[in-house]
Here is the input.
Amino acid sequence: MNFFKSVKKAFSKVGKIVKKIAPVLVVAAAVYFGGAYLMASAGTVGSAAGASVTYGAGGVAEAFTKSAGVWKSFLGGLSSGTASQSAVAFAEGSFKASQLGMSLSGQVAAGTSAVNFLSSGVSTSQAISQGVSLADQAFKNGSNVQSSWDILWNGLDKTVGSSVAPSAPASKAMGLMGENPADFSVNNEGLFGPQGTAMADATQLEGGQAATGSSVAGTDFGARSDASVADQNGGMITGESSLLSDTNKNLGGIFSNNVSANPSPVVTQPQVPTTQSYMLEYIKANADAQIKVAELHAKTTMEEIAARTKADNWKLGLTASGLFLNAFGQYQQARSAEKQERNRFMTTPALEEAFKNAYSS
Amino acid sequence: MAEMIPDMPPEMPAEAPMEGMINQPADQSMALQMDDEKAGEMAMKMVASSKNEMYGESFDSFMQVLQRSDNLVEDLAMISLNVLSPEMEAASTQGGIPFDYIMDVSAEVVSEAYDMAVQTGTYQPSNELEIERNQNITLTMVAGELGKMFSGNPALDENRVSNFVDSVMDGNYDNAPTLREMQPGGM
Here is the structure.
């Protein structure tokens, strides 16, 4: 079984505008399928492969299997990202590697390490470039595929090992994923997980231009939760950033201006600045700062609520979609069965005989 | 009173049925016994039916989704999954899901979804590279979701999945032409 066989040529040319996805990328995606499958099944069933995986010091443990490395990487990436984010990292990593002319195993290595880098807290685009770079070096320096992978794992150990290597036992991490779906979007929330960061990343790669073009570049996620990721990805949410920086600037200004040059009437009663006046000044300035902070906090909270509402709407939509799929699946089954029945009738010997008779006469 | 209690049934030989299960090679599970030709036919049927669905009954609702889309890459992944899921369910009742072709079918459906978006003008890519990258991201998202979806499916053996991943990572698929080689004028 390989999850990828070239389906017969029957539908290769149907006047498509869009070029078909290259086979190498389909195989790379198939590896992602395998990783997601193993990761999810390990969470519920328990994985013999996963249980013994370590990025232990000194390199790859004897019991280490490559497939376990894949899902482990996804797990590492997902601990700080989301399902969508890791899919973007893997897809872009493998794509960039393929453009560099790397072999298929090298592409998979690039995608895997890109997902791995997500766990180090960098942005998706940074994770992709670092992952591709590391895989490229490993596959250039390795004498064969195996040694290249060894170099790669060791490199990952050194760079993101502390966050990727399971500090807790694998089973515990898996348990968390299964037991506390609020923390992880993978198991229960499906593709769309926590919408904020994941969606933003899917379109905001390299400033939202290269990956998705003009039609979706104007995506407005409007969620405060996007800010950290978006900022790392090239400052998509510049308004948020400037708001924060301006506020900080003002906070600084309150202290310095009020104290030195422009004391308020209440505070300026003593002509000569005393410790008490400084204290009063400080308290007032601090109060102003606190008000500013409170205002900012309120604004952030409002935005977070809006983002959560949006996320909840998505979840509701997905739930409805799931119900629909369920119902539709049954309908589809019935329809397929009906079609088959009709086809069977069409090829009945009696019918063929009738046709023959009709044509012969 | 005690006389009315029927005798306990004789103990079943516990080893007999288990033996068959254990000795059965992993690759011989029911779903994987599909012969290649049948699996191929099933895959083709799934693709054809998906396209039929995409341009048929669901066309209007998909257009609405795409026109209102904030994130086309993800929405196309959702559309693809929407089309694929019932096909998978239908296939599972008619001889089994053709796991060998699952990614190829997914790639065809994703590619068709992009084609639909481009042809209807809901997506206007700025260049070919962009659409290739986006298709790849969408396909990977679909792959991830399908992987999770099948994680509870006993028909898909875990060892075989990991063997496949190991095989790719070991370089057994490295003779596939790279993107550069596939491009016109490539080596």
